Amino acid sequence: MKRLLYITSGIIALSSLTIGCVSRGNDTGWEYAPDMAYSKGYEPYNQGDSNLVNPYGMSMREPVPGTVAIGKATNHYALDNSAEGYEAAKAISFPADFEDNNQRGKYLFNIYCTPCHGTNGGNDGEIFKHGLGKPAWANFQDKYIKEIPVGQIYHTLTYGKNNMGSHAYALKPMDRWRVVRYVKQLSGASAEPAAAKDSTAVKPN
After folding, report:
1. Which of 38, 133, 159, 176 has its CA 20 to 30 A from that of 150?
2. What's the structural domain count of the chain?
3. Mean pLDDT across the chain, nearest whole number?
């Protein structure tokens, strides 16, 4: 009986030592019930095993053509992200129901634009100060910014241009127009919506 007890104790000690060696360093060791940690179901944001049903092995299905996200039905912008679309944007302007009574355009500009363009549009934001980028266009006080049609600034905010990426993910259509107006104000040019025509190409919300 004592011999059996010694043998059992030795096996337990050896097993503990072996498990301890296996789980050292970056190795997490053995897992208990791995099905609880790694779901066997197809989850949209967790591309595990290749999906044998969906195209390209994706877990997430592409939306049906023409599908509009909830709350985004009025975010339609008719012009394409192309040279032709940018040229056509000259013809669009502030929507008829535009308002910026609380200076939201300035507020949003200071969040999304000043890191590159600086507080006054001098292209002296922190990114350029530290040599992390190169200004994509002239200072806002330059003749180019003063004379560029507001529709083309809106187009640029929607799709991006040169070093600047699209801001459509962060700015709703009406907020983009508010930023456009503030950019024009910084340039010293007049950009009063009352003098502009409504555009059917943009339906802001």
Report:
1. 133
2. 2
3. 78
